[in-house]
Design brief:
Largest sheet of chain A: 8 strands, mixed
Bound molecules: thiamine diphosphate, iron/sulfur cluster, magnesium ion
Number of helices of chain A: 10
Shape of chain A: globular
Strand content of chain A: 15-25%
Number of helices of chain B: 21
Oligomer: heterotetramer
Radius of gyration of chain B: 27 Å
Strand order of the largest sheet of chain B: 11-10-12-13-15-14-21
Helix content of chain B: 25-40%
Largest interface: A-B, 62 and 71 residues
């Protein structure tokens, strides 16, 4: 029996998680712990966005868990009045997988950084994605190691001068969206920290998705990589650079001035006026090849940055399937410990 | 019950029971060690297993030791391709699979070459002559056929049997091709040995018919071959003597044969049932631990989830995540995997969650000798993490004991909210012995109570407010309203569990974690000293229980009293251990490592313990330990 | 200065490795160690192919190193009369990276399995690929853990019944080619063990490529996953299934009967007769989007299997760039240890 | 040279030198401890560094200890945001950064609150009053302004200075905005302290102009603020006394100030130069080890490659791969990273390749206290791997000593072809002291010889044929014609290095690897016992050298002889250690862990060593150890 046959792909991401009796407010999600990021850190805005967004899900707070690794961003769970674990560097997806498998009644969120998720934790991330464990993974990408005070990360631009690379870094960076798509992710989205509405929309879709949802969040680190995403925050620049995609909609941006069209097997940007309307690519979040091409349209230098949901497709989740196997086994055979211990071949010694 | 006086050199077991010893007659023996050896394709493990089952059904006590080649399938007929299975059965309770075989069955030249040195002078050697071709002889470096000259017959009782030819002959009318027919020759060998030792046969025939239910012709062929072997013994003149080993006087009850890995898996299943918790095994395959995963994956009906992760770190991570969620998290591995898991074990120490870490030890360091046994991970288990990171350590002493040890590990993990290292090893993982199946009603109650209410004076919930007795913190699982809290790897303030960089708190917490582990209630260690006159104490742990116990019996038989204490609990040590040690003039600690327990004992009790070590990837022999003990005892009396 | 500015992309993969004075034969590459795979194991054929191929490179044997992890396939180095290290599970790419960085005069090969490379070693693999370390990585994919006697692997098909999954596996497998492409690999190829010519051709291009070259080799494990690739070995089946791609050539197969054409943003198979010649896709190994689409055309059930070189593109290698930084630093500043130890701020105590 | 008799409670250093003590006059002191404390944004590290440089240039001996907040930038004005820098300077050779400050400079209420308990009664307290606003006071939980009531003035010599206001005033005419001007207040504080302690000023002015060369107005502003502070002292009446600390009589030579991490990095550079090998550092950032990477990445001109890998495992893997290729492979990390590297260390043990593993220890277990110090990884270094997996262990005893320790680690790694664990810690990594810069000519020759020829009797190359003296195997690097061979993690046959499952060979190799490490030549441990009459021996290792040494001096001053032995070599121990231990009635082992060295000493020498432990994330204070030693000494004499 394959996992697919085990069914359930039609379920929403939060089915099984108990809902709250009363409406909630953002402040219900604030813990009593003092927030300790640097002034101006992009993590604050993301925290606020999440705390404002979660009440809209209407879940019991105690059924929400945030699991993080190590890094500035990974301190996130302390600030949430939910359950939480600030674990060890890179391992949050693994720990969250065990939790999600054990507990269908929880909404499990992973908070991680570009170092935590893509450097030391890269393997757990890609395996979680291929397994499609029902986890929402918020990847705070500031393109730097914040907590260890400023070394380059796997998403830093080539040639970056940092504490550990005084002559410039040599590694070609990952494109987290391409990587996730290559790793069979069923849901990949991207948002910019400062864009509360865009971020909230991606979070909403991620929460509704049953399975792993990777959300890359461009996050400013004013201390060690200040202004990394400034061109996306300046309104005018942003209009030329940010391409927000919506499933089923033609991909245009810059107030409709620009459009995305095909070019070879990939995509290119054109003036909307210069192309026929039918040549404007319509986003289809089910289409992996399109999602991949979109991920390549976003360049490391932010010339173009696609935001929104690249891919959103249904596939049985690992945790649902794992529980289903246990349930089927239980239904098929009672848990008779005595019988198990005896097995088939016994002999008896009389007194 | 204490008749285990081996003299390995005696042919076919020790003839110390009444019995006539002439042609065609039956000789009574108290114990026999048989070793089946052949190519890995020859089915030696199955053959051994079957003989074992029959011996068990017959009521003998027994112990077995398989020996696999390191390669999956080394080239046929080569030395690295030899696979063997040794079993020891007796009319009294025995402790080991036997030092050396009384009977060696060698299916080919490689098997002969690899095993003959273990056969004592005068032992019985049964060879399948069909494989002694020039090519096969050359393959293993025999210049001449050893069956042709007198070298073997001078030293052993040699029986040359053309097993393949005889098997093919017996199956002539089955329509089976020669190649297929020849494959059944291991059943021929089994039949012959069954005849020699007056074993019942119905069980094996039933077994074969069940096993090959889907291929009745193969089933029939195997049964025929088995009978042919039996008849060969019965009708040819070559075997003058047959042997009987009476049933053992074992404790009353129902028994089964069980390997260590299976018993360990059952222990985990039982821990789940007795605690009422779902079990989540997060693991990654590795020899010799993989069979625990294989076994547990069959028992999902007990609420067991098995998760084969991408690596050891993810495996233990998933187990810890499951524990955080209120399941019994378990991870299984061998030494190299423990090395990888060490950072996460540290996180479990800090978050104080229940976790069972099974280490089926194998030969190290590094990849080492993956298919061989060793006990060299004790200090890794104790100290293999950054910082002061104490964990409980429990070790089983025999295959069947793995069941109890697993339950004990679960008890400690659940009561004290701590990782527990469970140190099995390759010898007991794959070895087997009869197991007196416990009554489910008699199994310990492991039920736990999750926190449900705020516990702090200020009406809030403090995740690190401890039980004053066990020092365990409350287990408050997600989903519990009002108990939302955050845990993690940073140092915690005592009580509130908030992050704390306070120097005094850190010192306090480091000591508290240590005190929690030191304070785990473990049973006193029992000393086996029948005469009560021993001045020498031998202390062991883990799988050396069998050989140490057998050696102790032997030296006592020789009139030298010796006391034997075997540690199930390596951390903390039993409270009476210091007292026990102080009662003896000399303490000796045999280990399959360079003296790891000895180091701990010396440091803790300042006792000048003698460390006797052997690191050969093989269990101790009772014989060698007998000599070692005797020497020490003599040293003390002089 | 960026890595790209450091230059060198035009070098061949073997530049800097000394060449042999005499022609070599396959047997020169056979070590004195007895080969110990199971009879019929696909590893034998690959070993033979490599031993026959290497002499054609004409390198000094002593300048070739094979580094492997753990697994049946990872015993490969023992059988090669070159230098070799049989390391630990999953870590060969990391070890080989250090070696390649330290030694420009070596040709470094990594031999790994689907478990070794994609399970425990997944992270090292993807980082090696993005860095583009000059390593040739032979991934023996038998879709099973051979050495540990038959558990499912990250490339096993969903629902696979193995020792560790008696009720069927639940994980959605990786597509190693997609994963590598998502991880910025500059060279990805695939071959089937039994196809010596195809394999040799991919090896040849891999050796010539300067940078990481991942070669996935479908390898039969007769003991634990026998016949996994049998449909690709039956001549008739193979002609309908195997799509061998060659840079610059239209992609047709089945003796020209079938062709690959576009479908949406991806690819599909058509009867050549039914499509216009200009609609037949021409392979371009420089085109990442095409390579990705080709990787998705290969399905897990081997309905279609693309072989050959999916991607082959030049990018500065990490090891060249790292050495270049050292050389530039040396040229810029002499290695004056005394001066370093003194630094700027000293004081002297008189006697 | 042995005048380090601290009485921390004395104001402004111990006035045990001649000097008048009245208003407006100069008092001579032998030593002073100053602590600058402020918000992490206040530039306290820079301020401390500058004072240190001036003291060094002036010729004092000194030692420093920075204390960073755990957060990158905790919210301004909060307790977790406090950053401090303590420096101890003296006219004689000192051993520690000082137990407690004589002078505390507190730039805001948080800094006051976090540090005031460390200031002894009568100590000098200088506060920046401008920050004592209601809001800031509330932030750290002060109900009332502590500067307003008498609580402080009763206990300390309090100087209230409106540093921000004064700085802004001084910069009025520079055109700088108020906010920018206010930022220079740390230089005001520095100026004031420089005046108080008669420090030279030119160096600082030069430094500021260089540092802000690109922003001359900022440079000028800082210089002005610095002078304003100086003038404030000179012109106001509040400071009645100023102090002088004469230059120390240090050994002849050229000195510089150096931190442990820098010295360690330089040691690695030197090891590369002295061995003639390229260095490959494969590493992953982690506090407090990252600065070693940062430093080494600046010195590529010495043939050093720094590779920031994807994780610790890849880092050590790359280092080992480089070693295999004939480079000096180095990896640097802290405790959690060592846990992750343990499997690969095992591979290095088996492949017998040189490798330096630097562990800058921090508070554990798990993530623990990342910015604090601890010595709790010793047993992890010894035993944190599967199987019998011995490695050499070396520890530096002070910041400057890290240089020598790194060279020593390299020597052992290269001569014995073994991984060496180099155990530094957070205290010496970030602490600094003057370093007598060695002559490059005097550095040890570490040159190695690679194998170039077949070495075996049969004319082939055996990679495991050992040097009979060192037991090291040949280092045959790829590229060497005719020496092709394969190594790996499986057990090797002695000599040939082929895979071997032979039981006797395994036992032999396990013992051989142990013997190789046990046989490493290390210098005898020296005992410091000036009187030669000590009956108590204190044994330490690593960064506790300073406080133990200082405490020993103190008790000796009180007439109690004590011997101090400090171990650089933790594995193997120096050969004379057993002898040394046996000469004393009592042995005490102070450690910043729960007694890890004590455990090893007890096990090896069966000595009932007293373990004195403190695990607070902070170095020992000489004061507390003085009491501990005195108690033990009294116990022995009674
Ligand atoms: C095993 C281990 N290795 C290294 C570290 C040190 N470390 C902590 S966070 C971090 C990287 C943080 O970068 P990122 O994930 O991008 O998070 P950010 O701080 O930028 O939010 C590192 C290297 C650690 N804590 N544990
Ligand atoms: C740290 C560690 N974990 C687990 C193992 C056990 N192990 C050895 S090889 C292997 C998987 C082999 O699968 P693959 O890489 O596909 O190689 P194959 O044998 O199929 O060629 C495993 C799990 C090990 N040796 N070391
Ligand atoms: S270092 Fe950067 S990422 Fe970290 S808290 Fe500060 S601003 Fe945020
Ligand atoms: S188990 Fe499979 S992969 Fe391994 S050697 Fe045997 S046939 Fe080959
Ligand atoms: Mg980051
Ligand atoms: Mg495989």
């Amino acid at each position: 029996m394959t996992a697919t046959e085990l069914g359930l792909p039609a379920l929403g991401g939060l089915v099984g998680v108990p809902t709250a009796d009363e409406p909630q407010k953002a402040k219900d999600y604030k813990s009593d712990q003092e927030v300790r990021w640097c002034p101006g850190c992009g993590d604050y805005v993301v925290l606020n966005a999440v705390q404002s967004f979660l009440p809209t899900l209407g879940l019991k707070r105690e059924n929400i868990v945030f699991v993080s690794g190590i890094g500035c961003s990974s301190r996130f769970p302390y600030y949430m009045n939910t359950y939480g674990m600030h674990s060890i560097h890179g391992r949050a997806p693994a720990i969250a997988t065990g939790l999600a498998v054990a507990r269908p009644d929880l909404s499990v969120w992973v908070v991680t950084g570009d170092g935590d998720a893509l450097s030391i934790g890269g393997n757990h991330l890609i395996h979680t994605l291929r397994r499609n464990v029902n986890l929402k993974i918020l990847l705070f990408n500031n393109r730097i190691y914040g907590l260890t005070k400023g070394q380059y990360s796997p998403t830093s631009e080539e040639g970056k001068v940092t504490k550990s690379t005084p002559l410039g870094s040599l590694d070609h960076p990952f494109n987290p969206v391409s990587l996730a798509l290559g790793a069979e992710a069923t849901f990949v989205g991207r948002a910019v920290d400062s864009d509360r509405a865009g971020l909230t929309e991606v979070l909403r879709q991620a929460a509704e998705h049953r399975g792993s949802a990777l959300v890359e969040i461009y996050q400013n680190c004013p201390i060690f990589n200040d202004g990394a995403f400034d061109v996306l925050k300046d309104a005018e620049e942003a209009s030329r650079r940010i391409i927000n995609v919506v499933h089923g909609q033609p991909i245009t941006f810059g107030g409709g001035d620009y459009a995305v069209v095909r070019e070879g097997f990939g995509l290119a940007v054109a003036k909307t006026a210069d192309v026929a309307p039918e040549d404007v690519v319509v986003h289809d979040a089910e289409d992996l090849n399109l999602a991949f091409a979109l991920s390549r349209l976003s360049t490391q230098d932010l010339q173009h940055t696609v935001t929104g949901v690249f891919r959103n497709t249904a596939r049985t989740t690992y945790d649902d399937a794992a529980r289903e196997q246990v349930e089927q086994a239980k239904a098929a055979k009672p848990a008779d410990l005595g019988a198990l211990l005896h097995g088939k071949d016994t002999w008896t010694v009389a007194g | 019950m204490t008749t285990d006086v081996g003299n390995g050199a005696a042919p076919a077991g020790s003839p110390d029971k009444a019995g006539t010893d002439k042609a065609g007659t039956v000789r009574k023996l108290d114990r026999v060690v048989i070793r089946f050896a052949g190519d890995s394709g020859d089915g030696m493990q199955l053959t051994g297993d079957r003989f074992t089952s029959e011996a068990a059904a017959f009521g003998n006590d027994l112990a077995t030791q398989p020996n696999f080649p390191a390669e999956i399938r080394a080239p046929q007929g080569t030395l690295p391709g030899v696979s063997s299975f040794q079993l020891h059965f007796a009319d009294y309770d025995i402790l080991t699979p036997g030092d050396r075989p009384d009977v060696l069955v060698a299916m080919n030249p490689a098997a002969l070459k690899a095993n003959i040195d273990d056969l004592p002078k005068g032992g019985i050697l049964i060879v399948n002559t069909d494989e002694f071709t020039k090519r096969n002889l050359v393959k293993v470096g025999y210049a001449a056929d050893p069956l042709e000259d007198n070298s073997l017959t001078e030293t052993y009782q040699v029986h040359k049997v053309a097993m393949a030819t005889l098997t093919i002959g017996a199956l002539e009318n089955t329509g089976l091709g020669k190649k297929d027919a020849e494959r059944a020759k291991n059943m021929f060998a089994l039949g012959l040995l069954s005849w020699m030792y007056h074993r019942p046969t119905e069980g094996t025939e039933r077994f074969l018919r069940e096993k090959f239910a889907k291929k009745p012709d193969i089933a029939e062929a195997n049964v025929l071959a088995f009978r042919a072997g039996w008849n060969y013994g019965e009708t040819t003149e070559s075997f003058a003597v047959t042997y009987e080993v009476a049933p053992a006087k074992l404790n009353q009850g129902t028994y089964r044969q069980i390997t260590g890995n299976t018993a360990l898996a059952y222990g985990i299943v039982a821990a789940g049932q007795q605690s009422g918790l779902p079990v989540v095994l997060g693991t990654y395959p590795i020899t010799p631990a993989s069979d625990i995963l294989h076994e547990l994956s069959k028992h999902k009906n007990f609420g067991i989830t098995t998760l084969q992760a991408e690596d050891e770190i993810a495996g233990i991570g998933a187990a810890l995540g499951a524990s955080y969620g209120g399941a019994l998290g378990v991870t299984s591995t061998s030494g190299p995997g423990v090395a990888l898991k060490s950072e996460t074990i540290g996180l479990a120490v800090m978050t104080e969650l229940p976790l069972i870490v099974i280490d089926v030890q194998r030969g190290g360091p590094s990849t080492g000798l993956p298919t061989k046994t060793e006990q060299a991970d004790l200090l890794q288990a104790m100290f293999g993490r950054n910082g002061e990171s104490p964990v409980a350590i429990v070790a089983p002493q025999s295959p069947a004991d793995c069941f109890d040890a697993a339950l004990e590990a679960a008890r400690i993990a659940l009561v004290y909210r701590t990782p527990v290292l469970l140190l099995s090893d390759g010898a007991i993982a794959n070895g087997s012995e009869p197991w007196l199946i416990p009554d489910v009603e008699d199994l310990p109650d492991l039920s736990v109570t999750f926190a449900t209410e705020p516990n702090a004076p200020d009406g809030t919930f403090w995740p690190y407010l401890r039980d004053p007795e066990t020092l365990a913190r409350p287990w408050a699982v997600p989903g519990t309203a009002g108990l939302q809290h955050r845990i993690g790897g940073l140092e915690k303030a005592d009580g509130t569990g908030n992050i704390s960089y306070d120097p005094a708190n850190h010192d306090h917490m480091v000591r508290l974690r240590q005190r929690k582990i030191d304070g785990i209630e473990v049973p006193d260690v029992e000393v086996d000293d029948p005469s009560g006159e021993a001045r020498v104490l031998v202390i062991g742990w883990g799988s050396s229980y069998g050989p140490i116990g057998a050696a102790a019996r032997r030296v006592r038989k020789l009139g030298m009293p010796v006391a034997h204490a075997h540690l199930r609990h390596l951390n903390p040590f039993p409270k009476n251990l210091g007292d026990v040690i102080s009662r003896y003039d000399r303490v000796i600690v045999p280990e399959m490592n360079l003296g790891q327990l000895a180091l701990l004992l010396r440091a803790k009790y300042l006792v000048d313990a003698i460390s006797y070590t052997k690191v050969q990837g093989l269990p101790f022999k009772a014989e060698e330990l007998q000599d070692v003990l005797a020497d020490v005892i003599k040293g003390v009396s002089e």
